[in-house]
């Protein structure tokens, strides 16, 4: 992909000020991903449903494993990135951060979104991501232009209405 320099090594673990951390996710995370996603499914569908068709109403564990394996392959190829939000013990998934190449018109280096599980909405973990992710992208990711924070600096409806790049 041309959206990131060839020598870029994506972070494998990123500490947040609270002690939580982000790390890439893959198929091995299915057992903690599935309950987090399905436990927040209605809200996640209201965010990602129109754009991504995700998460489906009756997503099975196997479908989730396939989806995570797909993300894992894309991360390895630097095509897109999925990071999970965890406490130190990684006993449960607290949320996710998606970093994708631009798919819509505009001078942006990436399209980025994130979510936390329902019980953390409006709390410290969500506020921490809201503050941390834009700084992290600006200072640690070699993006050719600023990131578009979908659902933050542009609504999902506005993003869906944007044309594809020329």
Give the topology, please:
Blueprint (H helix, E strand, L loop, with lengths): L13 E2 L5 E4 L5 H10 L1 H12 L8 H16 L4 E6 L8 E6 L9 E7 L7 H17 L6 E3 L6 H6 L5
Parallel strand pairs: 5-6
Antiparallel strand pairs: 1-2, 2-3, 3-4, 4-5
Name the features.
about 170 residues; alpha+beta; about 15% strand; six-stranded mixed sheet
Q: Outline of this structure?
A:
With 166 residues, this protein is α+β, with helices and mostly antiparallel strands. The protein contains 5 helices and 6 strands; from the N terminus they run E-E-H-H-H-E-E-E-H-E-H. The mean pLDDT is 95.
Low-confidence stretches: none
Sequence of secondary-structure elements: EEHHHEEEHEH
Tell me the number of helical segments per DSSP (H or I, 4 or more residues long): 5
Strand order of the largest sheet: 1-2-3-4-5-6
Structural class estimated from helices and strands = alpha+beta
Rg calc? 15 Å
Helix content: 25-40%
Distance between the termini: 17 Å
Shape: globular
Major beta-sheet overview: 6 strands, mixed
Chain-averaged pLDDT? 95
Please give the number of β-strands: 6
Strand content: 15-25%
Describe this structure as you would to a colleague.
- With 166 residues, the protein is of the alpha+beta class.
- The chain has five helices and six strands.
- A six-stranded mixed sheet has the order 1-2-3-4-5-6, sandwiched between helices.
- The mean pLDDT is 95.
């Amino acid at each position: 992909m041309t959206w990131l320099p060839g020598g870029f090594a994506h972070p494998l673990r990123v500490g947040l000020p609270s002690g939580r951390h982000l790390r890439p996710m893959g198929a091995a995370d299915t057992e903690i991903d599935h309950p987090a996603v399905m436990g927040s499914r209605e809200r996640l569908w209201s965010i990602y449903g129109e754009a991504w068709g995700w998460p489906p109403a009756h997503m099975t564990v196997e479908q989730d494993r396939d989806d995570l394996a797909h993300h894992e392959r894309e991360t390895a190829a630097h095509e897109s990135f999925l990071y999970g939000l965890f406490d130190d013990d990684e006993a449960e998934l607290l949320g996710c951060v998606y970093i994708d190449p631009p798919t819509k018109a505009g001078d942006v280096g990436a399209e980025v979104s994130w979510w936390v599980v329902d019980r953390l909405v409006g709390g410290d973990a969500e506020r921490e991501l809201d503050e941390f992710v834009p700084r992290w992208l600006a200072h640690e990711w070699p993006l050719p232009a600023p990131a578009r924070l979908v659902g933050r600096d542009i609504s999902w409806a506005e993003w869906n209405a944007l044309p594809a790049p020329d």
